[in-house]
Specification:
single chain, 9 helices, binds iron/sulfur cluster, Rossmann-like_a/b/a_fold
């Protein structure tokens, strides 16, 4: 089955974005599963497994795409492995074209300290673009309350960079909503979240956050950067 025409996807996305603006997360997921079938996937960075769990309840066996940059905390890989083992999903671990060693050889060591945009491009943005090719729609766990940079997130939108539909079922959720879902369904959570990391990415670019601090403030703390480029 080939992908749909981008103009048609754009129309579907904009209409659904209006119709589902105030809908519960489960209804948004059910719409996406019905509309796109196998051409719908979830992405996760495994700070927690809430989105993967939510979608798996509607569509067991759904693809969950994880970008294995080679620079993750072991706690993150542990969540990924538990999800792959225990949840009704198909985890796809995507590696960049270059290993960390080959990137060091070609671009110099510790590129993340000198040019994090290029490093994210090589290890996240480009691999994700390739990984998403089999799909018409992808779901993310973006939430409006995570950061001013995410405050305008729509529950369904057109991803013009990839000519896809982008679904954010829990965009309207607060951290309390996430915590309640985790407790109700016993969903795996990254141990680092419990240790004071409000947001978890690659280990060289993540630090703990203080209570009340912007949850994204712990990402790329030495740079004027709060997003890796996947969502911009
Ligand atoms: Fe590189 Fe840091 Fe981006 Fe990971 S988060 S890809 S280490 S710059």
């Amino acid at each position: 089955m080939t992908g749909r025409d981008p103009a048609a996807l754009r129309e579907v996305a904009l209409r659904a974005g209006r119709d589902l603006a105030g809908a519960p997360a489960e209804e948004i997921v059910a719409w996406a599963v019905e509309e796109f079938g196998d051409r719908f996937c979830v992405t996760s960075s495994f700070a927690d497994a809430v989105l993967a769990h939510l979608v798996s309840r509607v569509r067991p066996g759904v693809d969950v795409v994880f970008l294995d940059t080679g620079l993750h905390f072991t706690e993150t890989l542990d969540v990924r492995d538990r999800v792959a083992r225990d949840m009704a999903v198909n985890v796809r671990s995507i590696r960049p074209a270059l290993t960390v060693g080959r990137q060091d050889a070609e671009y110099g060591p510790r590129l993340f300290e000198r040019d994090p945009d290029s490093c994210c491009g090589l290890r996240k943005v480009e691999p994700l673009a390739e990984a998403l090719e089999p799909y018409d729609a992808w779901a993310t766990g973006l939430r409006r309350d995570e950061s001013p940079s995410r405050a305008g997130t729509r529950v369904v939108d057109f991803d013009a960079n990839r000519n896809m539909v982008k679904v954010a079922p829990i965009a309207a959720w607060t951290q309390s909503d996430v915590d309640a879902y985790v407790a109700r369904h016993q969903v795996p959570v990254n141990e680092l979240i419990r240790q004071g990391y409000a947001s978890v990415g690659c280990w060289p670019c993540t630090r703990r956050t203080a209570p009340g601090e912007d949850p994204r403030a712990g990402r790329w703390p030495l740079f004027d950067k709060v997003e890796c480029g996947i969502h911009s």
